[in-house]
Amino acid sequence: MFERMKTPGSAGKGAERNVRLLIAAAVLVAAPGLRAQMSCASAATPVAVRDQGGAELTADLTLTCTGGLPAFAGADLPRFQILVVANAAITSKDLDPTVGRSAGWNEALLLVDDPAAAAQRPCAPLDAGPPCEAIQGKPGAPNVFPARRVQDNAVVFSGVAFDPPGPEGSRKLRITNVRVDAAGLDDPFFPDEVRLTVQIFPAGGGTIAVNPAETLAARVAPGLTFGLRTAEDEPAPAAEAALVTTPAMLPEQTPDTEQSLLVRFTEGFASAFRRRNLATSSGSPAMLVGQALPGASYGTETGFYNPTFGAGSGLDQAGLADTGTRLKAVIESIPANVDVWVSQADVSPTGVTHALLTYTDADGGGAFTPATGAKNGFVKLDETNGIAVAVWEVLSSDATRIEDLTFRVLLTAGDGAPASGVATVFGAMTPSSSASAVLAPRFEETFDKQRAFEVKDVVTSAFFTVVSAASYDGVAVAPDSLAAGFGDNLAPGLAVAQGSLPLELAGSSIEMIDSAGMRWNPRLIFASPGQINFWIEPGVTVGPAVLNVLRNGRLAASGQIVVAAYAPSVFSANGDGTGVAAAELLRVSNGSTTPEPVGVYDAEEGRWRPRPVSLGPDGELLFLTLYGTGIRGRARLADVRAEVGGQVVPVIYAGAQSEYAGLDQINLGPLPRSLAGKGEVDIVLRVAGRTSNRVTVAFE
């Protein structure tokens, strides 16, 4: 009946519009004059459709018809054929009827006079049967008509029965559930617009005037922006991975949010993300209700849908989407023995769940099936040849504003030692259009890969040189001691802990992995771009240890140090581990005690200098209090030996100073009177064979 129309993308694009407009030229001859007087005005409120979508719902097209000759009572209603041609492939689903019923119906529907849901009467007759009865004045005339596909970009509604309204009335025809392949739109005249052309043919021949014949039904726009964020929800640095970590930093079994990154899907326009049906929610993902109010905008992947239509014709499935919008993250080049976990739900600041992780077929399709086996809200992805895929289905959306959905990706160590490497990721909407040609929705994939995470050896990171905070000796540190680390860009600014020592200062933190593989988070005292001072907690296993500096959740520097049971170090007044001791002298005379300093501050040079100490007359006793770290681990007091000016001085106390974490106190004395007149002399401690740094005190 219809000659072959040229489809979008075929040869002869310049003539395509004429083909659409003249398609019915060979159809029928002129209709009777009175009936031809009816004319229809077409209108649509254009909607945005996603540029990657293969089955995008266009706006409803309405035809408001006036004029013509109404039928007499008891007469058959006039019947019409209504042809809809698009400048893109029409991808409304062809319905699957039951055995023995007429095949070939399409989910695109035509409604007469916008009937209420309960009053909707579909007409889908058998191929060999009589047409649906439609008699003027007799109740029960059909008012819902399905289409048939006539070629890739055209459908036709046949046998549409309605009464011309006459000169004083009007009749509304609504065409709904027209889906198009927006991704395949290839119109040189309207490259970003979906246009529908309508022609109406009375059964007796001729055409009914439609003005305008061609109507804008949708505008094509980008539907998705995909990006990466750091674990702290900061933008990923340009040309760098969102997470840089080391094998030693990866937890072995339980996911750790510190070793993570965020993937973010952002709508290109409001309503680009859609749940399947108005009743769909995170609590009831499979729930469905009718969406049969003509002209309503539901903001869902499902269009006009009335499940009460007869199942035999398949019309009870018309308009029903197969899924909600699904968001897919494909992670590739995953290093060996690195496991990838993802959050079951989106990371929402309000706590409202908008999308859930689902199992799918290879193309991202299939019924919603929630992922299982979660730990703390995270599910480990299956990996094949270094590739893992996560798919979340949108279950809640707001069609009035642009939304973004963010999901967390975590890393853990696998069964063996994690290998180094850089993993990439790309995000897309799914199911895939290429392999799931009958699904709605469906999408063309893009492959804009970004650097997701990098696992690299510690030696390739920026150096973090760790020393005792007292001596600045990098030989060893001890459990429950104070340490300092040096490097570049360790923290964005300067910060000093106030009150209880925090795990993080100025956005920086430290992870320590001891020789037993245990992970510790030292408390921080001071942080600056070039230096971090911290307290190593008790319980750290002796042996070599790795320390990693994390800045805003990203690896900034790494270093190694030996942890020893004791690593005696003494503080100096100038804070560099040399020169005048950070000490206090206590003079005991005639039963009274007087504290005295051992140094004096030189304001011109900005340094402490020794203050010569007088031993006083016979009978006076002098005791010296030193401050250090790494000493309290000694087994017994006798293991601590002190020398002042080469002379052994009794050690009265060597252990924790009660006020500050990690700070040790050493009380010596009485000082031998033979030190009188020695000038500036060295003070050195030895703990079970380990020697401290040398500090000084002066005697007059």
Quick structural summary:
This protein has 700 residues and is mostly beta strands.
Verbal overview:
The chain starts with 15 loop residues before the first helix and ends with a strand. It has about 700 residues and is mainly beta. Strands 2-13-11-5-8-7-6-9-4-1-12 form an eleven-stranded mixed beta sheet, with no helix packed on it. Strands 15, 17, 19, 20, 22, 23, 25 and 26 form an eight-stranded mixed beta sheet that branches. A hairpin with a 4-residue loop joins strand 39 and strand 40 (about 605-610). The model is unreliable at about 1-35 (pLDDT under 50). Helices cover about 0% and strands about 40% of the residues.
Could you give the count of β-strands?
Answer: 48
Described by strand count, sense and barrel closure, the largest sheet is: 11 strands, mixed
CATH architecture of the largest domain: Sandwich
What is the count of helical runs? 2
Low-confidence stretches: 1-36
User: What general outline do the C-alpha atoms trace?
Assistant: rod-shaped
CATH class descriptor of the largest domain: Mainly Beta
Specify the helix fraction band. under 10%
Structural class: mainly beta
What is the domain total for the residues?
A: 4
User: What is the CATH topology of the largest domain?
Assistant: Immunoglobulin-like
Q: End-to-end span in angstroms?
A: 121 Å
Cα-atom radius of gyration: 40 Å
Quickly list its features.
eleven-stranded mixed β-sheet, Immunoglobulin-like, 1% helix, eight-stranded mixed β-sheet, 4 domains, 700 residues, 2 helices, mainly beta
